[in-house]
Structures are given as structure tokens and as C-alpha cells.
Write a sequence for this structure.
């Protein structure tokens, strides 16, 4: 095992999910990255974990299933899968998800089948995803290269091995892992820097954010009363800190569910259902998408907006400077975990309830909506940042403050 | 994919488990052999399967768990695992198990932990293993090389790749897969040859078999009334044929539970709990082991005999000529699926109920015992064949017939 890989595993276990003595850990991992799950398991036990379970997944056999199984094989709710979710929820498992997806894995698959499976998956998995959304437990999302993903990101590499090496180098760099420094210390410093931005935004307590750039975006977002800006380094219901995403460069909160008006133009393609939605825009009226268009795959955009109720309302607004290291890498990662940290972005669908004061105590959808928190079975990020992005914050007493100028922090 | 691999996959799906249109298939597979599970899944769908599920396992993380988890983490019966077993049982899944074990994976692990886990695993998995034991569904067991296994079997190979290639060649040869012939045809012929041996043994309807060789074995085994000799090519409760083991060279039935007397000397080491029991012998009185000894790891032999009730009675007697291709390969495979097909053998523990007339209708342990069928949570083969093995059959009217002479079929 290379020194950097060891550091990266420790970062995932001891900083990301920050596992504590006596805690339980669920690792969700693709079978093709089994070595990483094993290293993380051992590291978690060394940190005193009481129980570590690995839940394997495999998108390649999922694709075979989508392509070759009969129609009768989709959309079933299995009791044993519900029982498994219940076990991980009841036993208070903390969670690490290894995110390593071939961006083209769903290409050519019948979207009806994907929708059926995703709908039933989201429904059955809700007790677990609710715990994650509410940060009731510590959790982290971290990426490991796979061959198909590396070849997509580095199409000019001469061999698969070269692509994998380039991918690892890019991941280490973006995750603040290098040969000479201690990534745990690097992250302490990074968290402190991000926290300063959060403090300033919380102090201003903006009522509106106004986004404008030359791409055509002219969008006013109302923020809910009691909105909370969040950066890396959250505290879970367990009382321990965790880093939800490695890497992360974003500071985010939720728009008020019914308070967004204007138009936004995406600045990066969105990979959805194995295909790319590109050159798209959304027009909002009182929080809801009323018009939309895309140069490429508009029908997929339509599916995204209509498959799950409330997928046509916003659930996240995130600020990322155009000079962030991930943005500066110039790589198109085909992976939301990375691409979202390269650009200011919004998310359609579910909001994280802890981004509004009282959100965690609001149990029903109605209670959440009353606080301005959107609810949905989906949460889909899309990028809208640019080198010329301007963001003006407006306070309750009408004062206007420059938050971003020319794509960079102005506060 | 090589031509031979394609043939091997087809052999597993279309001959081994012999999947039919509308049937369901469960593939149990190590994560390190994921490519094989995917190929088998696609092949099964092409054969008309309605649903194919893959249940991943990983002995490397299991080992980490054994070595590093606290004591509290072992021996739990989880409801969700029971529910999963129930699902596969209730839905009538046919089964393919990919058997690819590093023979040293459990080396140095606390045997108490292994016992706890195996006990609970056998208990929870019983509804499924009962279906398999009774051939209620079609099932097959087939091996795929892993690096650690190949390196153990071919320690003189210069590279891991060379060991893997040697391993594949040996597996293809033993499984009657080659470049020029059709393995499906080869197996038809093999099944016919084996069936002839079954027919002769059934015609004689022996009351006793008497095993004798220079190694010291002098064992009389009583066969139950209505015992059935079985070779490859069984018929499942589904009405379809299947091959339980690929490869297979054995013709087997069960000894009467209380009818074995004398002494047997093992002729090959037995890998148990990651270690090797070697140079061992067992003395039987009325079916039960009354004395035993081993040159190496006698304490493991003791554990094997005492962990599960009735593990000290026999559940299988299998005849394999000393010239079988697997025996002729001269390889010590460290894998029961292969090594058991190189030698006459016995099994401690559970008998297959279909090896006695009426056995499948006997529900309770008591009913099975009354028919001479042993019941237990374990079934452990050990080898006792040799180049000089003599087997004399004795019929109900006292006629003696040579079944094996000098290690080879005499009937």
C-alpha cells in the first residue's frame, strides 16, 4: 500500500466519518474497489469500532440486469431489503459511501426501468437517507478510481494503468493528501477557512441572494428565516464532527422552497441516467420551475423534474469560488462529488433539514414546507458558477452586500 | 473473454444449474470473481431467467473482521439475514455458488470466533441449505481461480499471472472444457458413464461395503434399506436435471447412521478452519466415532467432531477411482470440490436425504434417523482412497462382490 493511499484511508475513517470507539460503521462500496473497503474496515477497527459491515454494490451487474432482465423484474419492494435498512437505522450505524461510478454505465438503458428502480430504492432507503440528511449519524462520501471512470476522465492516457495513476494523483491533490504533509492537519486548516465564510454569511443573515452573469443567469433566491450556512465539518446527532464530502469546497444552505424567481443557466453538463443534459436553463416562479429548455437531452431534464414530487423546487444553494483547486484542475470529473466542488451550484429536490433552524424537529413534509424546506425523494446538483459570477446579498433592512465578484468571494 | 471461459460459463449456467425460462437464479460469488458472476448473470438471462440476484461474499474482509473486531461482534442472529434467506427460499431461487477460497484465509484466527459465526450461519441458512440438500431446486458449485488460491496450488510459478494461468488450465482440463470439443456433449457422455456405475450398484443393492487398504483402513459400512446411489446428473424437485458439482467424478450414497464399524485412515490432509489436520484416523462403533487421533492438529479434529451435534456420525460414502483425471493431475488443490473428486471419501455430519428412499418426505430428525439418515449442521468430506483400496460389497443374501480392486472400479 502506498503512503498516500494509507493517508487517504485514514482521512476517510478518522476525519471523514470520524469513527469513535464503540461505534458501528457501514461501508457501501463497489465490488471493484474491495481493497479500499477492506483497508477502511481495518482502520475503523483500529480506531475502536465495535462493528463494521460492508454492503457491496456493482453497477456492472446492475447494467446487465437493466439490459437483459424481463420487465417483471423491476420495481419490487422486498421485505428483506426493508429489514436490512431497519437494522442499519436501529443500530445507529455511521456511514461511509465509496462513490466510483462509470458515468456511462446507464447509457442506452430504458429510462422507465431506471425510474422504477430508483423510485423503489429511494422509498425503501428513506429511513436511512433521512438519518443522513438530518446528520443524525456521522457520514462521509469519498471516491476511489475505477478503470472505466479513469479512462473517461483521461481519454488521452496510453494505458488503463496510466489513466488510473492520473486519477489517483488528481484525487489525492483535490483531497489535500500529499507526500510531505499530514492530511489531518491540512483539513483542520481548511475547515477553519471555510468556517470563516460561514460566520460572515451568518452574521449578514441575508434575506435574498441575487445571482447574475453573462451566461444569462438572473436569479433571485430568498433564504428562509433561520437559514444556516454550512461548510465542511458538521456535527452529527452523535455529538461528533464529520466531513460529509471528501473533497469539499462549498458553503451551502437551502433556498426558501417558494422564494426563487428568475432564470438560471447551467454552466456544466449534467450526467443523468447515463446521459448528458447540456446547455440547459430553468425559469422559476415562486420557487417552482415553470419553464425550461436544453440543447441536449431535454427529455431527460423533463424526467428529472417530474419523476419525484417536488423535484421542480430547489433544495440547495452552494457557493464555490471559481479558483477552487478542483475548478483549477480543469478536469471534467463526470462525478458530482468532484464537479460540484468546482462551481457554484443549485440542487433540485430535497433540502437538508438542518440548513434551517427547527428543520430537524419538523417531522412531516407540511411542517418542513412551512419552514421553507423542500422535501423530495431526489436531490440533484447542477452547476451554474462562472468566472464572471456576481452574487449580491440583500439583508432584511435592504442593505446590499457583494458576496461574490468575478466568480470569487468578496466577503 | 477467451473461448474457454465462455464455454465454462455456459457449462455452469446451461448444464450445471441448467437454468430454464422463467426461473430465478441466485449466484453466490466472491467479490474478487465479480467478472464471472456478471458473465453467468448475462448467460442466465439469455437462457430466459426471470430474475438473477448476486449475493457477494468476501473472505478477505471476513478475515479482517475475525482478527480485529471485538468479541461482542460475533454470533449474532440478524432478522434481516433471516428475511433474506426466507426470500430466496420462498421465491424458489435456483443456486450457483462460486467456490474460490484461499485455503489459508482462516489461519491464525481464534477458532471460537469461527465456530460462533459458522454455527449461527448454519442455523440461519438452514432453510436454504435444506432446499439444496433435498435437491428441491437446481444448484451447482463451480470454482474460479483467485490469486491467493493459485499461488498456494502452484508455489513454483514465477508470477501471479503464471499461477493464475496454470490454475485456469487445470480447472478447464478437470471440467472437460477444451478448445476443440463441446463441453455440453462431453458432459452428456460423462454423465452416461457415471450412470452405468450407479445402475450396477443399485442392481446389487448391497447391505454392506467393506473398505480395506495398506494404510490401515478396515471399515465395514452398512447401507440403509432403500439407499440410492447418486452420480452427477440429478433431477431437482423442479423437474429439471442439474450437476451439483463441476467437476465431479464421484458415485455416492449415505452410510446407515448407526451401521459403521471399524477404523479408517485419511489419505489426504483436511483443511479445516484455515489449518491442516493431517495423518488422522477415526474408529467407529455402531456409526459413532469412539476414538480418533491425528499427527497434526488433533484439537481441530476434536472441534470438528464436537461443535455440531451428530458431526461424529457419517453422512456420505463416495467412490472415486484412483485414475480419475483430477487424481491423475497430481495436484493438491486445497479445495474440497476438487480434492474430493481425486479420492474415495467419507463425510462427517449431514447426509443428503434423497440418498435414501423416503428421505425427502421425512421431516423431523427422528424420522430421518429412523431411515438411517444422519442429520447435522455440518458436512465435512475427508479423503481415504488409495492406489491399493479394495472394496467388497456384501448383498442381503451374503454374496460378496468386488466393487473396487487396486483403487479402480471392478464392477
Amino acid at each position: 500500500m502506498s503512503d498516500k493511499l494509507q493517508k487517504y484511508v485514514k482521512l476517510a475513517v478518522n476525519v471523514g466519518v470520524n469513527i469513535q470507539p464503540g461505534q458501528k460503521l457501514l461501508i457501501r462500496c463497489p465490488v471493484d474497489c474491495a481493497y479500499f473497503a477492506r483497508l477502511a474496515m481495518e482502520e475503523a477497527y483500529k480506531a475502536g469500532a465495535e462493528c463494521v459491515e460492508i454492503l457491496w454494490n456493482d453497477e456492472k451487474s446492475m447494467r446487465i440486469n437493466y439490459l437483459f432482465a424481463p420487465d417483471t423484474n423491476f420495481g419490487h419492494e422486498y421485505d428483506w431489503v426493508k429489514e436490512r435498512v431497519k437494522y442499519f437505522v436501529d443500530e445507529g450505524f455511521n456511514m461511509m459511501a465509496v462513490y466510483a461510478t462509470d458515468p456511462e454505465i446507464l447509457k442506452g438503458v430504458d429510462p422507465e426501468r431506471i425510474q422504477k428502480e430508483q423510485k423503489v430504492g429511494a422509498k425503501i432507503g428513506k429511513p436511512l437517507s433521512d438519518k443522513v440528511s438530518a446528520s443524525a449519524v456521522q457520514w462521509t462520501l469519498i471516491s476511489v478510481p475505477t478503470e472505466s471512470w479513469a479512462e473517461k476522465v483521461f481519454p488521452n492516457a496510453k494505458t488503463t494503468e496510466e489513466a488510473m495513476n492520473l486519477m489517483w494523483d488528481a484525487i489525492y491533490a483535490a483531497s489535500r493528501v500529499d507526500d510531505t504533509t499530514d492530511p489531518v492537519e491540512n483539513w483542520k486548516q481548511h475547515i477553519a477557512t471555510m468556517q470563516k465564510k460561514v460566520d460572515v454569511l451568518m452574521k449578514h443573515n441575508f434575506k435574498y441572494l441575487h445571482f447574475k452573469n453573462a451566461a444569462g443567469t438572473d436569479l433571485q433566491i430568498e433564504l428562509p428565516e433561520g437559514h444556516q450556512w454550512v461548510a465542511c465539518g458538521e456535527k452529527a446527532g452523535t455529538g461528533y464532527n464529520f466531513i460529509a464530502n471528501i473533497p469539499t469546497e462549498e458553503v451551502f444552505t437551502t433556498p426558501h422552497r417558494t422564494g426563487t424567481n428568475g432564470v438560471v443557466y447551467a454552466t456544466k453538463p449534467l450526467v443523468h441516467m447515463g446521459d448528458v443534459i447540456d446547455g440547459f436553463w430553468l425559469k422559476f416562479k415562486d420557487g417552482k420551475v415553470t419553464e425550461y429548455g436544453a440543447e441536449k437531452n431535454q427529455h431527460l431534464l423533463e424526467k428529472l423534474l417530474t419523476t419525484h414530487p417536488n423535484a421542480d423546487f430547489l433544495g440547495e444553494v452552494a457557493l464555490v469560488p471559481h479558483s477552487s483547486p478542483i475548478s483549477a484542475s480543469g478536469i471534467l470529473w463526470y462525478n458530482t462529488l468532484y464537479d460540484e466542488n468546482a462551481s457554484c451550484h443549485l440542487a433540485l429536490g430535497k433540502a437538508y433539514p438542518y440548513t434551517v433552524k427547527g428543520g430537524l424537529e419538523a417531522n412531516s413534509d407540511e411542517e418542513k414546507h412551512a419552514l421553507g424546506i423542500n422535501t423530495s425523494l431526489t436531490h440533484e446538483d447542477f452547476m451554474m458558477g462562472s468566472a464572471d459570477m456576481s452574487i449580491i446579498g440583500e439583508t432584511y433592512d435592504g442593505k446590499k452586500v457583494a458576496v461574490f465578484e468575478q466568480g470569487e468571494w468578496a466577503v
Summary: Residues 183-204 of chain B form the longest helix (22 residues). The radius of gyration of chain B is 21 Å. Chain B touches chain A through 32 residues (CB under 8 Å). The mean pLDDT of chain B is 94.
